[in-house]
Amino acid sequence: MQYVDDIIRFFNDATYLSDTHAAMMLNGLNSDMKSPMRRAARFMYVVEGVETYKNPGKTLEYEHMIPAQWQMMRHVAGVRKGSLTKENLLDLYDQYTVAIVPKIMDLVIKTLGLTLLCSRAMRLVNTLLVDTIT
Question: CA within 20 to 30 Å of 131's CA: 19, 31, 102, 105, which one?
Answer without folding.
Answer: 31
